[in-house]
Amino acid sequence: MIGNINQAVLLIIIANVLVSMKGFNDYSFLDKYKFQVGRVLAGEKIRTLTSGFLHVDWLHLGFNMYALYLFGNIVTTILGIPEFLIIYFGSLLAGSLYSLKYHKDEPYYSAVGASGAVSGIIYSSILLYPGMNLYLLFIPIPIPGYVFGVGYLLYSIYGMKKQLGNVGHSAHLGGAIGGFAITLLLNPILFTANKLMVILLAIPIILLFLFGDKLKDL
């Protein structure tokens, strides 16, 4: 199965693994390149990108890279490598910007992870291939791709509210919005070809825009 992985997806996975391993063993490196609100607002904009290649531990890294492996090949196969890279890095930036907005009054808030980029790729692949079914580890029955995608977002909302770990849960949401918007901009035909899926995936995004600021008060 690994032999079928697209080279662009594989290279991004390798980059995440190597940079994360460096961060595991060198806290000063992690601290220098992680996302931190105060540092970003002070001008260290590079953190909005570099934080996306760092992870807190092997479980965090493995989950993100497994999701990227599952969904990244779909995007590269249907759209091609340049579009995949646009969606990946666009979603990564969107995740960081949403985190910056959501935590703007918390200068010491920090997070790492490819969550924003991966969320964008997940949303993109579901838009492009709404009929996909996934066979996940420890689950013996196929799971519709859109169920996984929505579940991923719900977990992100819960994690964002509870401030679980040093993981960029708010970046999941921002990344999903980025992947959704960029994919539709690159492929406006999806508005008519996959109209129902566009509407279904837009619902949590719209609700997030309307009520996202109230999450902190719950």
Structure description:
This is Rhomboid family intramembrane serine protease. Residues 43-186 form the Peptidase S54 rhomboid domain. By secondary structure, the protein is mainly alpha-helical. The protein has a single domain, classed as Rhomboid-like fold (Up-down Bundle). Helices cover 69% and strands 4% of the residues. It has 11 helices and 4 strands. It has helices spanning 7-25, 27-33, 37-41, 47-50, 58-79, 81-102, 115-128, 145-162, 169-186, 190-193, 195-211; strands at 35-36, 110-111, 133-134, 143-144. The strands form 2 sheets. A two-stranded antiparallel ribbon has the order 1-2. It has a two-stranded antiparallel sheet with strand order 3-4. The chain is globular and about 45 Å long.
Overall pLDDT metric: 85
Q: What is the CA-atom radius of gyration, in angstroms?
A: 16 Å
Residue stretches low in confidence (pLDDT < 50, at least 5 long) are none
What is the chain-wise order of helices and strands?
A: HHEHHHHEHEEHHHH
Q: What's the number of extended β-strand segments?
A: 4
Helix content: 55-70%
The CATH superfamily turns out to be Rhomboid-like
Beginning-to-end CA distance, first to last residue: 43 Å
Question: What name does the CATH topology carry?
Answer: Rhomboid-like fold
Principal-axis shape equals globular
Largest sheet: 2 strands, antiparallel
- How many helical elements? 11
What count of structural domains? 1
State the CATH architecture.
Up-down Bundle
Structural class: mainly alpha
